[in-house]
Structures are given as structure tokens and as C-alpha cells.
Amino acid sequence: MSIHDSIQSVNKLARKVHGADISILVARAITFGHTDNLILVMGANHEAAARDLVRLIGGAESKVVQSVSFMDEPVRFHSEVSF
Description:
Elements: H1 3-18, E1 23-28, E2 38-42, H2 46-56, E3 61-66, E4 77-82
Antiparallel strand pairs: 1-2, 2-4, 3-4
């Protein structure tokens, strides 16, 4: 199974549990030459989905991040899971 397939599988499971709008994106990964791993979790239930990832990944931490509002766009939130 490729890394892409693994990420797609995690997305499908997260959507099944936390809602169809959940999206999980690998922003940084040691596998890709970075010094750490960072996963972005977006969607209405991003906090719960991120907590589930933290439970699965030993030594991971999560935090909620607020995006900067631009023009008339609403402020948005997402979770970051780092390890």
C-alpha cells in the first residue's frame, strides 16, 4: 500500500466517524525529508477527529488553529496534529 493509499484510507475512516466534510492533509512528513510530521484536520468536527489521531499516534499533540480573516471571508478553524 502506498502512502497516498494510506492517507486516503484514513480520510475515509475519519469521514465515516466524524462526518463527510472531514479532510486530513499531510502538511509535513519525515518520510518526505522534513524534520517533523504535521497533519492538518479540517471540517466541522475537526477537533474530535484530531483527538482520535492523537490517540492512535504515540507522542502526538493537537491544537486548534484560527485562520486569518481576509476581506469579508469568515475566520476559519482547523486542527493540527504534530509528532
